[in-house]
Amino acid sequence: MIHSSDPKEITETILSWKSKGLKVGFVPTMGFLHEGHADLFRRSVSENDKTVVSIFVNPAQFNDPEDYAKYPVNTEGDLQICKEAGADLVYLPAKDTVYPGGIPSVELKVPHLMKNLDATTRPGHFEGVLLVLSRFFHTIPADRSYFGKKDYQQFLIVKDFAKALGFPMEVIGVDTVRSEQGLALSSRNARLSPKEKEEALLLSRALRLGENLIKQGEKDPAEVLTVMKDVLDSSSLIKIDYLEVLNAETLEELHILKGEILLAVAVFLGQVRLIDNLTVKVS
């Protein structure tokens, strides 16, 4: 496995692979990798001849400087996980390499998918995601890129963004990896206390109860929201950031539950913000 901080070397390596007819997959990450990331890497390895991983904590997508400063880093461990999962090339750029002269004052948006959820509770977040990806998609001209569906809104936004700007890359969403207890794997979980980790299980429990209610025939989004909110409110440690029942393709508000439905939640547990979601399809 090769790793480099030189964007020119990264691009030349990928183009040399593609000149031989090899298919290239790309998984962008912010490091502090876990099994959820490894699952993305393995998916890429199974569908492509070569797999590229980027590790870069992107300052442009943090609206809280303290959150950026606290983001965990473990480069040596990350490289080992990449190697074990079968990655061929790891891009480790410095901040000044990605943003020479500082973060530019431009805004990239996909307006119809940025009206709610994290787009409103974390202003500037997705603009920062799209900014860094616009640069990485040029540096890493892959055939496919892979995103975890735990960040479901991000997956939809990036997919639409890549299509709108004509990046010749298929954007693929991969299902969330969970612990045996149901907690969605996240780099932020490392900052939870044992008690907070236990309380965090209420997120997936609330989502599953909402899913079951819909499958049993409930058509009123308000009823589903009430049930899920009651579960989360049972913990004095949880502060709800948002709780939504939306159309899973457009992220529009639903008045009657039908089609493919997204149940999405974000909460604060102490100083740590967690998100989770699931989709359910009904006729």
UniProtKB/TrEMBL annotation:
The UniProt record lists the keyword Nucleotide-binding: yes
Transmembrane segments: none
Name this polypeptide is given: Pantothenate synthetase
Keyword set includes ATP-binding: yes
Subcellular location: Cytoplasm
UniProt: beta-alanine binding residues: 61
Residues binding (R)-pantoate: 61, 154
Molecular function (Gene Ontology), one example: ATP binding
Protein family according to the UniProt entry: Belongs to the pantothenate synthetase family.
Additional record remark: The reaction proceeds by a bi uni uni bi ping pong mechanism.
Its job: Catalyzes the condensation of pantoate with beta-alanine in an ATP-dependent reaction via a pantoyl-adenylate intermediate.
EC numbers, comma separated: 6.3.2.1
Pathway in which this enzyme or protein is active: Cofactor biosynthesis; (R)-pantothenate biosynthesis; (R)-pantothenate from (R)-pantoate and beta-alanine: step 1/1
GO cellular component, one term: cytosol
Active-site residues from the entry: 37 (proton donor)
Origin: domain of life: Bacteria
Top-level enzyme category: ligase
Pfam families, sorted: Pantoate_ligase
InterPro entries for this protein: Cyt_trans-like (IPR004821), Pantoate_ligase (IPR003721), Pantoate_ligase_C (IPR042176), Rossmann-like_a/b/a_fold (IPR014729)
Gene3D superfamilies the record matches: HUPs (3.40.50.620), Pantoate-beta-alanine ligase, C-terminal domain (3.30.1300.10)
GO biological process terms, semicolon-separated: pantothenate biosynthetic process
Keywords on record: ATP-binding, Cytoplasm, Ligase, Nucleotide-binding, Pantothenate biosynthesis
